Amino acid sequence: MPTTHIPRRWLVPLLFSNLVLASLPLVDFDRMGKVGLAGTFAGLDFFQNSSFTYDSATSTLLSRSADGQLSALASTNSGGRITSGCALDDVFYLAGSFSSIGSTSANNVASYTSDKGEFTSLGSNGPNGQVDAVFCDDKNGKVWFGGDFSSPGTSVAVWDPSDSTWSKPPFSGLSGAGSRVFSITSNSSESSLFFAGSFITSFSGNGIVINGTNNPNVPFSAGATPFSSSLVPVPLSKAEIVASPSTSDSDFSDAQRILCPSGSDGAGNTWFAADGNTAVVTVRAYSFLSASGVRLGNTFLENHGTTGFSVTTIPDNNVRTMKYLDPETNENVTCTDPCPLSTDSSLLYQDFLFEDESQSITGVEIKLSEWTGTAPGLHLLQILSSGAFASAVNDDNGESCFAPQASDSTHTGDWSVKVANTNISGTTQSVLVSTVAVGTSASNSPSVTWNPYVSASGEYNVNMLVPGCTNFQDCDLRTTVTVTVFSGVGQPWVTEVSQAHEEDTAIPIYTGPIVPSTDDFVMTVTMTLSDSASEAGSGGNYELVADRIELILTSANISSDSSTSGSGSGSSSSKNGFGFFEWSLNSDSDSDATHTLPNSTETFLDGVAVDLYTGIGSGSLTSSSNSAIAAVAHHSSGVIFVAGNLTISSGSASGAKNIVAFKDGKLVGVNGGGLNGPVTSMVLVGDNLFVGGSFDDTSSTSTGKLSNVAMYDVKSEEWSSLEGGVNGDVASLGYNDGRIQVVGSFTEVSSSSGDSSASAGGFASWDVDAKAWVNSGGFILGDMTFVGNGTSSLQFVAGSVRAAQAFGASGMVFVQNSDSDEPAVTALDLQLDGDVSDSATSSSSSKRKRQHSNRASVWVPKQFSKLWSRQSSSELASLPDSLPAPAPAVLAGAFWTNTSSSRQVAVIGGNFSFSSGGKEYTGVAIYDSEADTLTGLQGAQINGVVRTLFVTGDSLYVGGQFTLTGESQNGFAIYNLASQSWDVSGLQPLSADSGANVTVYSITQSSSKKSAVFVAGSFAQAGSLSCRGICSLDTSSKQWTTLGDGIKGAVSAVVYAGDNDALLIAGGSIALSGGTSANVAGYTIANSTWTAVGSGSDIPGPVTAVEVNSANANSVFAAGKTSNGDTFLTFWNGQNWTVQDSSFESTTIVSQLAMVPLQNTHSADGVIEADRMLMISGTLDDSSFGNASSALYDGKSYYPYIVSSSGSGSAGAVAALFHSLSSFSFTQHHFLATGVVILISIAISAGVVFLLALIGILWTLFSRKDDKLKPYEGEDGEDDDSTHQRPSSLLEHVNAATRATVFGGVYGHYDGDKEEEKIEPSSPSHDANNPFGPDASNYLRAETPSDAMGGIMGEEASRPAHARYSFDGVGEGELRLSAGAEVEILDDRDQAWWYARDVRTGQEGVVPAAYLY
Question: What percent of the chain has pLDDT above 70?
Fold first, then answer.
C-alpha cells in the first residue's frame, strides 16, 4: 500500500486498565450463544478512554501476551530506535539509539518493570553510542550490552542490577574493523558467551588452541565439561561386560553394544533391563586401569530410561561418590546412591567423575536402581581414563570410543613380552623387556617410543609406570633409563628414571601443557638405556622394562607460556580472528581483548574467528567494510552457525556467503553455498535453524522462494521455505510457544505458490508444527526492529509503528464474556488473503479523516445539525454505497452444527481467498475453531463478493455480488453443507435491470414460514418472475414467489417482528406497488400485504440497516443516508419516526443495527430498555469520538465500543455481528452469592412454622378466584391499598395487553393460522391494510384495550398522569415505568390497579394506582 495513504499519527486504544474497560457497557455476548464479528479489519480492540498516539518517527515498545494480544507501553523520542532487549528476573532491559522512552530520559538503554508499568534509566555512565545487542546472564545476575560505543568499554558494557553500576567487560572490550558488536548469545550449555559483530581479535603464541570449550573429537553434550570431554575413554573391546537381568528382546539384550554404539539410540545400539527390575551392569578388564569416572548415555526410547544409578569400583567394592555438571543449573554437584541420570533427550550423555580423583581399578559395577517407564536402560557406557595412556605392548592399545586413532608404540632392538602378577588381586600385567650388555651406550641401546592419543589440549602430569622387580624377580638386572618427552609445546623434556623399584611405581616424567594429537603431530615419550647407568647388573647384563605411560589431566585451561620448565616457550608469533569471540563466564582473566590476548584465553571455538579472518581476507576487514557477523547459533551437536554479511574467498569454506558452519574444528559452507543476501537474525528450535534477513534464495543453487526468511535442517542439511516468505527485509526473529515470530519491514506473508498473500504489517507468526503462517494474535503495522521474550509469559516487540490493535484477525473474531465480565476475543487463527475479483471493491470507499480523541467514552449528542430532503414518492434514490470490502474482508457469518462431528462451526463469507490442501478457495469458508481448520466450499468457486449468509438445516444460502464458475447463478446460490456440493439444480437465477448488477444483501427466514427463505437486495426478477428487491424462495421446490403485490426499489436489510416472526420489516430504498414511498416497509406474511411503516417522508433517505427491538413493531430503528450524504439514525415508536440526535459525519456507513443484551444496565431514560442497547456497526466517523467500527446506543447517548484497523492502517469496519441462537431473552438473570443462599436457607428453616399460615392464606386467595373473575364493583370492602392483587375488571384488559397482536403487546389479537380479523377504520383516511398507521385499527388496536375487546370499557376518555415512583413491571401485563414518566390513564375503575399507556414508548399495561399522580 502507498505510504501516502497512511496517516503519520493514528490514535488507537490501550487495552491496559480494567477500570477503563469497566466503564464501557458490558454486552452479554453469551446470552446470544456463540458470537462472531465480521468485517473489513486486520485488527481490532475495545474503545478506551486512554488512547495511545503512534508516531512513525519514533520507536514504540509493545508488550505481547501469551495469546498474542498487544499493548503499547511507550515510545522513544523522535528519531529514536529500539533494537534489542532481554529479561532478567522481573525486569525487561531494552536498548538501541534513543534519548528518552515515554516520559523517562534514558540514553540508549532503559529498563521496564511490568508489574509497576514503569520505565527507568540505567544510571548516567552507560553506553555512549548505539546499542545493538543485549544479553541477560541469569546465573550471574548481570546484563551485557554490545554495540557501537567506546564507554564504559569498547563495544561491550556490563550492567550490575544489584548495585546499579556500569563497568567494562573483564576483557575490556572489542575493537578493530567496525568496532561494533551486533549479537551476544550463550553457548548451548550457557557456560560462556559468544560475541559477534565487526571486530578483530588477536592471540599470542604459536597459534595452537589449548583451551577447548569441549573436545571437538567428542560429540557435544551439555552433560559434560571441557575437562571431562578431554578424558580419553578406556578401550574396552577386550573387557568382560555382564548385564543382568536383561530384556528378552534380542534387539536390546546385548550390553556389549553400548560400550561404543555404532548408531543412534535404538535397536542394536541400546540395552534394556528386564521389565520392572533393578539391573546391574558389570565391566571387568582384568588388568590395571587408571580411571577418573564413567560416561553414561541414557536411552530415550518409549517406556524405558534410567533415572537413578550408583557406581561401585572393582576390586575394592566401594560405592563411589561422583561429581558431575548439573545440566539445569550448570553447577558442579556430587551424588552417591542414587546419582541422577537426565531424561532430557538433548543430552547425548553425562560424565560422572570420582570425587577422589583417578582410581586404580580393574572394573566397575553400575547399579540401575531407578527408571522411567517399564525398565531401565542405557545407550552408552564408557570408563573415562585419567587423561590419556599408552602401553608398550601394542595388543593392549585398543582404539577408544570417540577417538579417531589409538595409542601405539614402536621399538628398536630386541624386546619380548613378559607377564607378571600385579598388586591388584586377580590381575596380570604384560610388559616388554630387553636384555642389554652393561656399558652399552644410549645411542646403541634398545628403545621404546610411546605415542599416546591425546584427545584435547590441557595441562597434564605424565607418569612412567615401572613394574616392581619383586614380582618380576629381576631386581639385580634393573638399571637407569633416559626418558625424553616431546609434548608439542616448547623443548623436549628429558628425565633420568631408575627402574630399580621393588613395588609398582609411577615415576613423574613431565608436567606441563600437551598439544592434542593430529594428523601432523603426536606426543611422544621415548625410553633408552641411560648413558649414566651405574648399576652393576647381573651376568654382565641389564634388563630394560617398558610398561605404560599415564597422562593425568589436571586442567583443560592452560597457557602455552607456562612457567613450568618442561613446557617450553613455543613460538612468539600471533594469529588474528574476525567477528567472533568466546568468553567463559567462569573466567577470572583480566586480559584486554582490544590488544593481543594470551592464548590462555583462546578457546577451541575461537577457531571460528581465525577461519573467518583468513577466509574473508584481512584486506576486506577494514573500518569501512560491510563485513560483519550478525547472528550466532550453537547446535546441541556442537556445530556453530555464524551468519551476517560475509563472503568466504579461501579456506575450507571457500565460496560460502552470508552463513557458514564451524564443524569438526573448521569452517565449512552449508548446503547451497549459503544465502544470496545478508542475514540479520537466527533462531534454533531443535534441529531446525530459522534464518531471517534480506535474501530470496541460496547462494549457488535454487531452492524455491525463500523470500527473506527460511529454515535450515541441521541434520539433513537442507533448506526449506516458510511458504512464500515475506515481502520485505526481516530484522529480528523470536520463538515462543511453538511459533516463530518474524519482524521487519514487510507488509505481507505469501502462500507457497506465491500467487496469494495475507496482510502482515511488519509482524508475522509461523507455526513450527503446522508449517504455516498463522494469526499472530495482535495487529501491528510498521517497520519493526525487535522481538524477544520478556518477563513471565510476555514478549516484547518494538519498531516504528503506524497503527496497532490489541487483537489481530483477518476479518473475523469470536467474542464472549470472560470471567471478569470483560469481552474475551478469539481471533480467526488462520490467514485469509487475496482479492476474489477486481469488482470486489467497486463500492466507493470513504476517507477516514478523524483521529480518536482522548475523551470520556460516554458523550451526549448534539442536535442533528442539517436538514434533509424529503423523498419523492415518484422517484426512488439509489441505495447508499455498501461497506467497502478490500480483501481480505469478511462481510457475513453464520453458524452450522456439523452433523458428522456434532461440532458447531462458523461459516464466513466476503471478499477473500485461502489455500487448503494445495487448492485455492474463494469467497466462503467453514472455520472449525476446535480443530483450527479452514475448509472451502467444494466444486465451483465464487467470483465476486459475498455479503450475506444464512444456514437452515444443512443448507447454506449465499448472497452477494458474484457469479459461480460454470453455473448461471448471479448473486445467489445454495450449497449443501452435508454433501459438500452446490445445490443449484433447478434454481432460477436472479437478474437485474440492464446495466445494473445483482446484489443480494439479506437472506432470512421467518419462524411463521419455515418452508421459505426471503432473499432481498438489488435485482429485478428471479428467472422469468418479476420480483423486485425482495423475493420468497420455497426451500423444497426452489420456486420463486413475489411477496404480495411486490415493491419497487432495492432492499438492504430485513428483520422480523411480532409473535412467530409474523411481520417482515424491510429497509432500503423502497416504494410500495402503489408508489407510496416507504424506505421501511412491513410485510404481513399471513395475508401477503405490504404496508409503509409510518410516513415515508419522515425517513430522511434510503436505509442501509434496520432493527426491531425484541420483536416489538412499535420499537424499530433504521439507519441510512440522506440525499446530501448525511448519516441518520431514526426511531419508530408506533406512531411516528423520530430522528435520533447524532454527530455522525457524512463518511459514516452503517452496515448493521443489532439489539444486544447487557450484563449491567443503563438509566433507560431514552427509547431503549435498561437491559439492552443498540449496536451500530460499520465504519463510523464521528465529530465527538473519532473513528469507531461499532458503537452502542442506549436511546440517548452513544458509546464508542469497537475500533479496528485495516491492513493498511486506515480505519477498519465491522460489517456484521452474528450469533448461533436465533432468539434469546434480554431478561437478566442474577444469582445470589453462596453465602447469601446459605443465610436464606437458615431463615427458611427458622420460619418453617410460618409456612402453614402461608398455605392457609394462599388457600383463601384461591378460594376467592371465582369472585375475582367477576366485574369489579368497587365495593368498600375491597383492599384499595393492595398493589399486587389484580382487579377482576382488568383481567380481560391484561390478557388483551399480553396476547394482543403480533407487535409485542400493543395490537389486537392475531392468529397466524387464520385470516386477520378486520374492523371498519375509524376514519376513511386510514389505510385499512396499514398495521403501522396512527391507530392501526385494522389490527384491532383502539385507543384503549377495551375498544380492542369490543368496547367493554365504554366511552370514558383517557387522562394524563405521571409516575410518582419507578415500577419494574416484570409481571405479565404490567407496564414498566421510570419515576416522572408521563402516562395516559386508560382505565381507572379499579382503586388499586390502573391501566395506562407510556406516552413516550406507546407501551401499555397495568400499574399500581398508588404509583401515579
Answer: 83
Q: Name the 3-class secondary structure at 1020.
A: coil
What is the distance of C-alpha 445 from the center of its chain?
A: 76
User: What is the rounded average pLDDT of the residues 313-323?
Assistant: 93
Instruction: Give the per-residue pLDDT at 1058.
Output: 92
CB 505 within 8 A of CB 466: yes
Residues forming beta bridges with residue 826, ordered by sequence position: 814
d(CA 920, CA 906): 19
DSSP 8-class letter at 1339? G
CB 527 within 8 Å of CB 481: yes
SS3 for 3-14 is HHHCCCEEEEEC
Residue 1018: exposure state from Cβ atoms within 10 A (0-12, 13-18, ≥19): buried
C-alpha 1250/C-alpha 559 separation (Å) is: 99
Per-residue confidence band for 1019, with pLDDT thresholds at 50, 70 and 90 = very high
Specify which of 392-401, 1024-1033, 1250-1259 reaches the highest per-range mean pLDDT: 1024-1033
The answer, yes or no, to whether residue 1300 has pLDDT greater than 70, is no
In sequence order, what are the residues at sequence separation of 6 or more whose Cβ sits closer than 8 angstroms to the Cβ of residue 706? 675, 695, 696, 697, 698, 719, 721, 725
User: What per-residue confidence (pLDDT) applies to 1382?
Assistant: 86
> One-letter amino acid identity for 1242?
I
Place 1136 in a pLDDT band, splitting at 50, 70 and 90: very high
Distance, CA of 313 to CA of 361 (rounded, Å): 7
Rounded distance, CA 1190 to CA 1119, Å?
Answer: 14
Concatenated DSSP letters of 147-177: EE--SSSBSEEEEETTTTEEE--TT-B-EEE
Distance of CA 411 to the CA centre of its chain: 68
User: How many Å is the Cα radius of gyration of the chain?
Assistant: 44
Residue whose C-alpha is closest to residue 920's, from 947, 940, 892: 940
- C-alpha closest to that of 388 among 463, 320, 448, 314: 463
Taking the C-alpha atoms of residue 1243 and residue 1232, their distance in angstroms, rounded to an integer, is 15
324 neighbors 223 (Cβ within 8 angstroms): yes
- Starting at the edge strand found earlier in the chain, the sheet holding 416-421 runs 416-421, 428-437, 541-546
Q: Which residue has the cell 398495521?
A: 1331
Whether the Cβ atoms of residue 299 and residue 247 lie closer than 8 Å to each other: no
The 10s digit of each residue's pLDDT in 227-247 is 888 899 999 888 899 999 999
Whole-model pTM?
0.61
Strand order in the sheet with 1080-1084: 1047-1057, 1063-1072, 1080-1084, 1089-1092
Average pLDDT over the chain reads 83
Work out the average pLDDT over 890-898: 95
Q: Is 212 in contact with 230 (CB distance < 8 Å)?
A: yes
HSE-up of residue 231 (Cα within 13 Å, Cβ side)? 27
Sheet of 679-685, strands arranged across: 679-685, 688-693, 709-713, 718-721
pLDDT at 5: 31
- Is 80 exceeded by the pLDDT of residue 1353? no
- Integer CA distances (angstroms), 607 to 178, 572, 842, in order: 20, 18, 63
Report residue 1078 as a C-alpha cell: 416507504
Q: What is the DSSP letter of 870?
A: P
Q: What are the DSSP calls for 1352-1388, one per residue?
A: TTTTPPPEEEEBSS-B---STTB--B-TT-EEEEEE-
What are the cell numbers at 19?
477500570
User: What are residue 1339's phi and psi, to 5 degrees?
Assistant: -100, 25
Asked if residue 205 has pLDDT above 60, the reply is no
Separation of alpha carbons 571 and 38, rounded Å: 75
Amino acid type, 1254: L
H helix runs in 422-554, sequence order:
469-472
pLDDT of 586 > 50? The answer is yes
Cell numbers at 398, concatenated:
585398543
What's the pLDDT score for residue 1052?
97
Q: In terms of Cα–Cα distance, which of 708, 1145, 803, 876 is closest to 55?
A: 803
